[in-house]
Write a structure and sequence with these properties.
about 525 residues, Hypothetical protein af1432, seven-stranded antiparallel β-sheet, alpha+beta, Beta-Lactamase, 3 domains
Length: about 525
C-alpha cells in the first residue's frame, strides 16, 4: 500500500480545493441569467482562480470578435475607480492573440507577451499598454467551447501574480482548469442568450398582441403602448425622488419591465368586446339613423296622402270649399314642419354629450307618437332599441354596452391568468386588472379602495385616464388640450379618485413629454411597420 508524502497530500488537497471551487463557480454561472453580469463574473472568477491582475473576454460574432469585457485590478487601484470600458469589434484573424485562439482552438500560455517568437502568426497589440502605462507580460488565453464543441469566444487572462505581487508565468495546471471553466462559461453564455431570446420573443408577442387588439379599432391604436410608456416614466421619476412619500420607494429594472408588460396587456380583454361597441361614434350608427330618416319620410308621404284623400272625400260630397282646402293645407304644413323639427332634434341628440332633462322629455314624447300605415296598422315613431340608445344621458353607450366595455377588465384578468408568467412577471395580471379602480371605490370591476389598489395599479390608472383625455383618435370625443387634461387629472385627485402624489409628480416633471430611459428607441418605428403590415 502506497503511503502519501506530505507534498503529495498537499497537492491532492490543492486539487480537491480547486475542483470544489470550480464546481462552485459553475453553479454560480448557471444561476446568473443577465448576460452582461454573467460575462463580468466569468472574467472575475477566472482571474481569482489564477490570481491574474487582468482579464478580457471576446465573443465570436461571424467574422468578428466582440471585445466585450476588460478588467485590470492594478489600474483600478491606481485610478481609484473602475476603468471605463466600451466594447468594440476586432477582425477575426490569426494576427491577434484572441483571434488566433478563436480560429485554432489552441490554448496559449505565454510567459512574456513582449517576447513572442517571430515564427508564430500572432502578435500582441501594445496600444493598451502604451495608452494606460501598463506592462502586459504573462498571458493565459483559452477558447470557450459550447456543448456543441463550437468556439463561441475567448477568455484571456493577463499577469498572474505571486504572493509578493510579482508577475509570474501562469502555472501549467491552470490551463486545464481554466479551459474547464471556459467551457462551463460558454454553456452559461448560450443559456443566457437563449433566455434573452425567449424574453425578446415574449416581449414581441406581448407588443404585437396589444397592437393587434388596439388595431381592431383605428380609434384606439397606440393606446396600450402609450400607457406602458407613461407608466415607466412615472416609475423612473419615483426612483429619482429624494424627499416626500416616494423617497424610500425604489423600483428595480425587473419591476419596471413587469409594469411595461402590464401596460401593454392591460386592454387585451377588449378582444371579447364587440367591434360595434368599440367603434361606436354616435348613439346610433349612420345606418340606424338612416332607418329613422326613411321612416319619417314614409310618415311625411302618408300625411300628404291623407290630406289628398281628405280633399277627395270633400270634393265627392261637394263640400270642398276654398276655406276647407286652405285649412287642410295649413294642417298638413304644420304636421310636415313638426316631422322635420322632430327629425332634426333626433339627429342633434344622436351626437354624444349630456342629454338635458327637457330633451329627455321631448324624446319621450316623440318616441310615444304613432302613425298609421296604408293597412291601418299603428306604429310608434321610434323602436325601443332606438329610444334606449338616443336616451343615453352622458356619452354614447347604453348601460348594457357600458357593462360590455367594462367587462374587458375581467376578460383581461381571465386571459392573463392563463399565461404561465415567470416569477419576475407574475404580477402582470394583478396590475392590469386594476387600471380602472379608483381610490374612493367608485371604479370597476371590483370597487377596490385605497390600499387595496397597489401602487403600480394607481400609476396605470393615471396614465390610462391621461391618454384617454389627450388621444386624438377617440370616435366619441375630440382630444382635450393638454392644460385641460392636466386640470382634470388634478380634479380627479382632489375628489379622491386618483393618487394625488402620482398626479403631481406626473405634472411637475412633465412626464407626458419626457422620454424614459427604459423606453425602446425603435418603438415608434415598430408601430409604423405594424400599421403598414396590418393595412
Amino acid at each position: 500500500m502506497a503511503i502519501e508524502t506530505g507534498t503529495s497530500q498537499q497537492t491532492r488537497k490543492d486539487l480537491e480545493s480547486q475542483i470544489a471551487r470550480l464546481n462552485k463557480i459553475g453553479i454560480a454561472l448557471s444561476s446568473e441569467h443577465n448576460l452582461n453580469r454573467l460575462l463580468e463574473m466569468i472574467v472575475r472568477e477566472a482571474r481569482g482562480f489564477t490570481n491574474a491582475d487582468g482579464g478580457s473576454l471576446y465573443i465570436r460574432e461571424g467574422d468578428k470578435l466582440n471585445f466585450i469585457v476588460a478588467q485590470t485590478q492594478s489600474l483600478e487601484r491606481r485610478n481609484g475607480k473602475k476603468t471605463e470600458f466600451k466594447s468594440f469589434y476586432l477582425p477575426l484573424t490569426k494576427e491577434s492573440i484572441g483571434g488566433y485562439v478563436a480560429i485554432t482552438g489552441e490554448v496559449l500560455n505565454i510567459e512574456d507577451a513582449y517576447l513572442i517568437p517571430p515564427t508564430v502568426e500572432y502578435r500582441l497589440n501594445k496600444d493598451f499598454d502604451q495608452r494606460m502605462g501598463y506592462r502586459t507580460k504573462s498571458m493565459l488565453v483559452v477558447p470557450m467551447r459550447d456543448h456543441k464543441d463550437e468556439i463561441i469566444g475567448v477568455l484571456q487572462l493577463i499577469n498572474s501574480m505571486d504572493e509578493h505581487g510579482n508577475v509570474v508565468p501562469f502555472r501549467k495546471e491552470y490551463e486545464s482548469l481554466i479551459l474547464s471553466l471556459a467551457s462551463q462559461a460558454a454553456v452559461a453564455i448560450q443559456n443566457a442568450r437563449l433566455i434573452d431570446e425567449i424574453r425578446n420573443l415574449f416581449r414581441s408577442l406581448v407588443r404585437y398582441s396589444a397592437k393587434a387588439i388596439d388595431a381592431r379599432s383605428p380609434h384606439t391604436a397606440g393606446h396600450s403602448g402609450r400607457v406602458a410608456k407613461y407608466s415607466v416614466r412615472i416609475m423612473e421619476a419615483i426612483n429619482e425622488e429624494k424627499e416626500g412619500r416616494f423617497a424610500d420607494v425604489h423600483f428595480t429594472p425587473q419591476e419596471i419591465e413587469e409594469m411595461k408588460m402590464a401596460g401593454w396587456l392591460h386592454d387585451i380583454g377588449k378582444i371579447g368586446v364587440r367591434e360595434a361597441v368599440l367603434e361606436k361614434e354616435n348613439k346610433l350608427t349612420d345606418d340606424q339613423m338612416q332607418v329613422i330618416e326613411n321612416r319619417f319620410e314614409t310618415i311625411r308621404l302618408l300625411e300628404i296622402l291623407r290630406a289628398e284623400r281628405e280633399k277627395a272625400e270633400l270634393l265627392a260630397k261637394g263640400r270642398l270649399t276654398g276655406e276647407a282646402e286652405k285649412t287642410i293645407a295649413e294642417r298638413l304644413q304644420a304636421r310636415l314642419q313638426e316631422l322635420e323639427d322632430d327629425l332634426a332634434f333626433l339627429k342633434r341628440i344622436n351626437v354624444p354629450g349630456f342629454l338635458k332633462e327637457e330633451d329627455r322629455e321631448r324624446l319621450k314624447t316623440i318616441a310615444e307618437k304613432t302613425y298609421e300605415d296604408l293597412q291601418g296598422e299603428k306604429h310608434f315613431y321610434l323602436t325601443s332599441f332606438e329610444y334606449e340608445n338616443l336616451s343615453v344621458i352622458r356619452g354614447n353607450l347604453t348601460e348594457a354596452e357600458y357593462r360590455e366595455i367594462q367587462s374587458h377588465v375581467d376578460q383581461t384578468l381571465a386571459i392573463l391568468n392563463k399565461i404561465p408568467f415567470t416569477k419576475d412577471l407574475q404580477n402582470i395580471p394583478k396590475y392590469a386588472a386594476v387600471h380602472h379602480e379608483m381610490l374612493d371605490g367608485s371604479g370597476y370591476p371590483r370597487g377596490l379602495k385605497g390600499d387595496q389598489i397597489p401602487l403600480q395599479g394607481r400609476i396605470m390608472a393615471v396614465c390610462d385616464i391621461f391618454d384617454a383625455l389627450t388621444a386624438a383618435d377617440r370616435p366619441y370625443k375630440k382630444a382635450l388640450p393638454l392644460e385641460k387634461s392636466l386640470a382634470i387629472l388634478r380634479e380627479e385627485a382632489e375628489r379622491g379618485r386618483l393618487d394625488r402624489d402620482i398626479v403631481e409628480l406626473f405634472i411637475r416633471k412633465k412626464l407626458y413629454e419626457k422620454k424614459a430611459r427604459f423606453e425602446d428607441e425603435d418603438e415608434d418605428r415598430e408601430n409604423l411597420v405594424f400599421r403598414q403590415s396590418a393595412g
